Amino acid sequence: MTINKLLGITVFLILISCSGDDNNVDVPDDGTESSVLQQIFGDNIDLSNLYNYANQDIPVYITKDNTDTNVITDAKATLGRVLFYDKNLSVDNTIACASCHQQAFAFGDNANVSTGVNGVTGRHSMRLINSRFARETRFFWDERANTLEEQTTQPIQDHAEMGFSGQDGAPDLSDLLVKLADLEYYQELFEFAYGNTTITEERLQESLAQFIRSIQSFDAKYDIGRAQVQNDNQPFPNFTDQENLGKTLFFTPPNQNGAGCITCHGAPEFDIDPMSLNNGVIGVFGDPTATDLIVTRAPTLRDIFNYQGVLNGALMHDASAVTMVAAIEHYNEIDATGNTNLDNRLRGGPGANGQNLNLTQADILALEAFIKTLSGTNVYTDTKWSDPFVN
């Protein structure tokens, strides 16, 4: 054997030994380098086998849909999922959308106010469950965002929340777009979803909104019962007597000895009436002397509780109701004094001094029992809505 052949064999053996565990790049069986997506997300993001976001089953009795022209696609919702969970969307890489809207709490927060990069949120984080099916197309407690798309990038640009505000020397949204463009996995994801790697605020809004609208919950005890009857006014065969009583009180107007909840929280979506004004809760978290009269929106009543019957966090924008009984008791007796923005439906009878429903303790507990039937199970564990960065 010649010296050249011996040298060739030696070099070959050295190359083999160098291709072992010390190599930072995984080499699949087919001999090609794994993509950046595989390195970052493992099996959580598979562009050849996307989760079903676009064609999920929706009950025939659900008729509301605020999608408008931003129709959900699996590709863009997948991109939206990554953006939703990515802490790179905050200035110091510590806060993601999912930090304040957690899957474990129906995409809300069990903290009274949520922690941001420069402080805390001004109001309790609203649950995002079933956002697609809200009659009210404006978002935030004070409805300052005209669409869900517009809402998605406002927390990113909030100085306290995610920090790309441009205030006090902080970077602004244009800096975020440059930051994301430098991340290789976004080059792959935007190319896949949009056909090129260009990242814009509009594309962030579009894909984040698609992912959020895909988050739905229609496997509750209520849905099982509703499918067995012609309408909500009939007793549900799968309900207890207490749950059916609570349903009747929920749907019956106050002048007929009911609670009249249905006038503001329309079934079967149980979202808020777009014409609603303030609900009588005017507090500001952490400041007992301040008032907040401009809160006129609320999340759906679905999944206020989790599937174990535990609240997914305090109720109301100021987290002032820590139990459902406390929230119902608020509506049982409302003082209209000093509230110039109180919804007329809560002003009561002659004199308009405030609502007094005269609900008994048994009535209140029945209403609570009914509201618990609005909670599903799948939304808390379904992988397609989970954190793709967790391997």
From TrEMBL:
Sequence ranges assigned to domain Cytochrome c in this UniProt record: 75-184, 241-375
Annotated keywords: Heme, Iron, Metal-binding, Oxidoreductase, Peroxidase, Signal
MF (Gene Ontology): cytochrome-c peroxidase activity; electron transfer activity; heme binding; metal ion binding
InterPro entries documented for this protein: Cyt_c-like_dom (IPR009056), Cyt_c-like_dom_sf (IPR036909), Cytochrome_c_Peroxidase/MauG (IPR051395), Di-haem_cyt_c_peroxidsae (IPR004852)
Keyword Metal-binding: yes
GO CC terms of this entry: cell envelope
Highest taxon of source: Bacteria
Protein name per the record: Cytochrome c peroxidase
Upper classification of the organism: Bacteria, Pseudomonadati, Bacteroidota, Flavobacteriia, Flavobacteriales
